[in-house]
Please model this.
Amino acid sequence: MSQLTILRRYAQKANPTTLPASVLFMHTDTSLTIFDAFPKSIFHFLVLPRIVAPLTVSDLASLRTLLQCDKTHSLELLRKLAADAKSVSTMIEDEMMNRYGFKWKIWTGFHAVPSMEHLHLHVMSADLCSPAMKKKKHYNSFHPKLGFFLSLDDVLSWYEAEPTYFGTMSKLKPSQYEPLLKEDLSCWRCGEELKNMPKLKAHLQEEWDVEAKREKARLQNKRRRAPDDPPSGGT
Model:
């Protein structure tokens, strides 16, 4: 099975539960959520729309093809994906607390120019700390400030803008976005420039460790300040 079309094959399955447990995380009548095979953050999932009329396989090839469809239909689908992504985010937050004792931000968005066929929404923890993060183009594709990674909220906002703005943004021209993958490496948190991926990865891990220590201390202090028993009512 071609890796370029494997997501489409998943989305076309009449019964997603036949997928291996290592692939399928959850599914609904309109979508399925899978584990990213090469996660670029501590938590990283993909939400795929299933093929449901009136939208076709071709309509759902990418975000660009979806945005060329009837706006009512495309907006409805994006809103459904947003609802499913919210459910996934809630489960990620629960697991964050179970594993690490604190929660941190979650990103939800699309690549402007995807590397695989079939629309897929990334739902991932905001850290970009992962052994699978090996190449500059991978990192830059998720850097939240470069512009290649389009947040779902931003895409939804295009529908509320002037039609000419929607028309311009929805073209998603590769010539506009692909050069962003070649930008110099910089920390998405503090902006510090790093010379290579090993230095960047070490820096990102240090930044995350600092955040973890700070948040755990904050929660511990909050628990210490909380009274042992709630105040009783008085007359």
Remarks:
- The two ends are 72 Å apart (CA to CA).
- The longest strand covers residues 44-49.
- The chain has a mean pLDDT of 94.
